[in-house]
Design goal:
Blueprint (H helix, E strand, L loop, with lengths): L3 H13 L2 H7 L4 H15 L4 E4 L2 E4 L1 H25 L6 E7 L1 H17 L3 E7 L2 H9 L5 E4 L8 E16 L7 H7 L1 E3 L3 H12 L11 E4 L7 H5 L5 E4 H5 L7 E4 L6 E9 L6 H13 L1
Parallel strand pairs: 3-4, 3-5, 7-8
Antiparallel strand pairs: 1-2, 5-11, 6-9, 6-10, 6-11
Helix pairs in contact: 1-3, 1-4, 2-3, 5-11
């Protein structure tokens, strides 16, 4: 592999066309310049210069090395500058969250991207466990979870409380236990967990979600309320998912006597420096949670 220090000395010599002035520009001795050029020739096994006293001309190999070497040095210089830059509105930001939080945040992050076209938002909807693994494995820059992580690699900070809501068809104005059992349950991946938290706190009859007849199931967060809106059953969902439903007049949202919330945590890789573009997305997300 070509020594870039020797290559830079050689290219500077070609441009300055004088050993002494090259030494002055590079803060070296003239013998140091000559020595580095000879080391480069020895490494390549080719003469680069025809030396005539204090004058020199380039060999064919020297001319080619200068042309291609100058381009390499320029690319390295640009790379160093690019690595040193940390723009707040350019680059890729990878975000993951459960579906409800994603429904809340994703439209606002798209609006942020429209204001800053240099940003690229990669947003993945995933359950808590997958978000946690992605942060730990450095496959996501920001994660939102509804539980704190126990993994050492993942740092979590509480940022919001999201209410759990009972949702029925629009015709149900005041749900009681009998009406819920008659309706049946529209299940989803977190259905048993959410029902256990909210219904367990508000109905003495509740033991588990298996007490209800299952009327349907969907693993698509944006579709869970569709069967509810058609009168096929009830469900329990986080507030952000309910707010995102496009036909609110076809459902009834019930805040029960004993409110139950889930804490939303913002998570990132433990002790990993946060680029400014990621800070930009974190700040925007904080406005909407």
């Amino acid at each position: 592999m070509i020594n870039t220090t020797w290559l830079r000395t050689f290219c500077t010599l070609v441009e300055v066309d004088h050993f002494t002035r090259t030494a002055e520009r590079l803060h070296m001795t003239q013998s140091g310049v000559s020595q580095q050029v000879r080391k480069l020739e020895d490494q390549l096994g080719l003469p680069l210069l025809f030396r005539e006293g204090k004058q020199f001309t380039l060999t064919d190999a020297g001319e080619r090395l200068y042309r291609e070497g100058r381009a390499i040095l320029f690319a390295l210089q640009n790379l160093e500058q690019a690595l040193g830059e940390d723009p707040a509105d350019e680059g890729l930001v990878r975000v993951m969250s459960p579906g409800s939080v994603g429904l809340r945040l994703y439209p606002h992050l798209l609006a942020l991207q429209q204001r800053h076209p240099g940003l690229a938002i990669d947003y993945r909807f995933a359950p808590n466990a997958d978000v946690e693994s992605a942060i730990a494995d450095d496959r996501a820059d920001i994660g939102f979870m509804t539980r704190a992580s126990a993994r050492e690699e993942v740092a979590c900070q509480p940022v919001a409380e999201e209410a759990l809501l009972l949702v029925t068809p629009a015709s149900i104005r005041k749900p009681d236990w009998q009406r819920l059992t008659e309706l049946g349950f529209i299940d989803h991946p977190d259905g048993a967990h959410h029902a256990g938290l909210l219904l367990g706190a508000n109905f003495s009859e509740f033991e588990n979600s298996g007490m209800f007849t299952t009327r349907g199931f969907s693993n698509q967060i944006g579709l869970i309320l569709e069967p509810v809106s058609r009168g096929l059953g009830f469900t329990v969902l986080p507030a952000y998912a309910v707010e995102a439903f496009p036909r609110p007049k076809r459902i009834s949202v019930h805040r029960l006597a004993k409110p139950v919330t889930e804490t939303v945590y913002r998570c990132s890789r433990h002790k990993k420096p946060v680029p400014r573009r990621v800070e930009t997305v974190i700040e925007e997300a904080g406005k909407w949670l």
